[in-house]
Amino acid sequence: MQDLVIIGGGINGVGIARDAAGRGLKVTLIEKDDIASKTSSWSTKLIHGGIRYLENYEFRLVRESLKEREVIKKIAPHITKPIRFVLPHVPSLRPSWLIRIGLLLYDWLGGVITLPKSRFVSLQEDFKENPLKDNFKIGYEYSDLFVDDARLVLLNAEDAINRGANILTNTSIVNTIRNKNDWEISLNTGETLKSKVIVNATGPYAVDVLNSLFKIKSKKKLRLIQGSHLIVNKIYQGEQSYILQLNDKRIIFLIPYLNKYTLIGTTDHEVDSYENPKITNEEKNYLINSVNEFIKTKICDKDIVWTYAGVRPLVEDFNEKASKITRDYTFEINDTLAPILTIFGGKLTTYRKLSEHALDKLSNYLNFPNKSWTGKEILPGGNIAIKSKLDIPENMIARLENIYGDKIYKLNEYFLKLDNGGEKISEDLYEYEVKYLVDEELVKTADDILFRRTKLGIDFPTNLKEKLNSILKRHL
Ligand SMILES: Cc1cc2nc3c(=O)[nH]c(=O)nc-3n(C[C@H](O)[C@H](O)[C@H](O)COP(=O)(O)OP(=O)(O)OC[C@H]3O[C@@H](n4cnc5c(N)ncnc54)[C@H](O)[C@@H]3O)c2cc1C
Predict the structure, then answer these.
(1) For residues 84 and 241, is the Cβ–Cβ distance under 8 A?
(2) Quick one: which atom of ligand 1 is closest to the CA of 343?
(3) Which ligand 1 atom sits closest to the C-alpha of 46?
(4) How far is CA 393 from the centre of its chain?
(5) Range(s) within the chain of domains with CATH label 3.30.9.10
């Protein structure tokens, strides 16, 4: 008998699995595709307070998010990076005094912060290379944290497994039976699980899953808001990111990405379906035209290297403007028979607190220690102070360290086991990494490797995919 079965392997599902397993609960998580295969790998990749939410008076959310920024920086140092956002001042949109108050609040609301505080900047003088048009003279700079979103999910799943959780990917639920004290869950593998409680952490799917798999009608509604991103060849050389305020009061980000690209996003566009989100031409043009209003060198369609889109599962708060709908989370529990808790909304940034709050709710039904621990224990690979000799060629180490942290030493064992890394697949990818990912990181398909465990897929040569697939098959 399981204490807890969690449905959905996005950030919220794995966050709860990690926390619950660490408190000694028997946990199984069921994900129908790969870990982080939906919204949680399609984000802007910011662990942020969300400066614009201050304008919506969402002080609780911003405060919790800013505190979490510090915690996640500490528990995931290998996959996070402090960044500085430059906000060029557009006087017609917001007066300076309002921005200054906003930034003071942003520096102060989260309590003690280790990231540099905000400051006034001269756009022409304070940066080695200023990509902005000359009419933008002054601005402000503040800190946030950039994260590898898909790996944050994976590392939470891995830590949950290390603490005894069972994580089943590429597994579907075919039937559920609800009894007074437990659930029976039949899987497509033929197995049936029994569990005292279920957590429905299926993000955008939550209402439909509740309805179709559990025959429960939710009292809450979700608004599905698509956000799309462009990845273009690097627009400028500097390390700084930009937050651009548009005339429609929306904002978009320009963020240096993977040393050679600039990440541009995001849009806010209401959709009816969460299946296979794709950037529309309208969204693409909106992003290109908006950036071109600000930068000296114009970008166009042919600069785009890759695009991605995701659907935010936002709790309906009857706000007309998509960008103003709350990013906060809430729960719904149905306990007329064995209980099921459903998660609505949330952000990548707040997943750990959301998980703690979910466990608080579950303590009415399950027995476990009331201890908050997930903010103190570093995620797998995060002991980056460890340094010892590696056999992996020097030119590959930087990429691998940025992805795997101190797990690179385990990877090194695979490098040696496969006799100097095994077969070469592409300039950056060798057989030993594929085998490591299959054995250690729940990989089942080439896309799991190319787009979630690593980001090699952005410019991976199509003609090498067959080779990758055949090597992958050898190790599955
Ligand atoms: C464009 C965009 C930008 C964003 N940027 C940021 C940001 O910068 N910072 C931030 O903090 N937040 C950001 N967010 C929000 C954040 O990404 C989401 O809130 C978060 O990823 C949602 O996670 P989740 O676990 O609820 O959902 P998901 O990641 O979608 O996970 C749900 C999982 O459930 C699985 N599932 C569904 N049905 C079933 C079923 N029947 N059986 C088994 N499994 C099932 C799905 O396959 C999926 O893997 C952004 C969101 C978007 C869309």
Answers:
(1) yes
(2) 26
(3) 8
(4) 30
(5) 75-146+223-324
Question: 71 C-alpha vs ligand 1 centroid, how far in Å?
Answer: 20
Residue 150 Cα to ligand 1 middle (Å): 10
Closest CA to 309 of 38, 75, 42: 42
Instruction: Indicate whether 53 pLDDT > 90.
Output: no
Under CATH, to which class is 75-146+223-324 assigned?
Answer: alpha beta
Q: Which of 6, 12, 16, 40 to mutate to test the pocket of ligand 1 (most atoms within 8 A of CB)?
A: 40
**For residues 265 and 287, is the Cβ–Cβ distance under 8 A?**
yes
Q: Which amino acid is at 186?
A: S
- What is the rounded radius of gyration, in angstroms, for the C-alpha atoms of the chain? 23
CATH 3.50.50.60 positions along the chain are 2-39+150-220+326-362
Residue of 348, 352, 445, 451 with the most ligand 1 atoms within 8 Å of its CB, for mutation: 348
Residue of the nearest CA to atom 25 in ligand 1?
10
**Is the pTM of the predicted complex or chain greater than 0.85?**
yes
Q: Distance between CA 34 and CA 312 in Å, rounded?
A: 18
Token pair in block for residue 353:
């607190």
Give the number of other CB atoms < 10 A from CB of residue 135: 9
> pLDDT by residue (tens digit) across 105-130?
999 998 988 999 999 999 999 998 89
Q: How far does the centroid of ligand 1 lie from the alpha carbon of residue 131, in Å?
A: 33
Domain 2-39+150-220+326-362 fold is: FAD/NAD(P)-binding domain (3.50.50)
In this structure, the strands spanning 251-257 and 241-245 are: antiparallel
Per residue in 180-235, pLDDT (tens digit) is 999 999 999 999 999 999 999 999 999 999 999 999 999 898 999 999 999 999 99
Q: Which ligand 1 atom is the nearest neighbour of the CA of 14? A: 25
- Per the structure block, which two tokens stand in for 2? 């399981």
What are the b/e assignments for 46-78, b being 16+ CB within 10 Å?
A: bbbbbbbbbebebeebbbbbbbbbbbbbebbbb
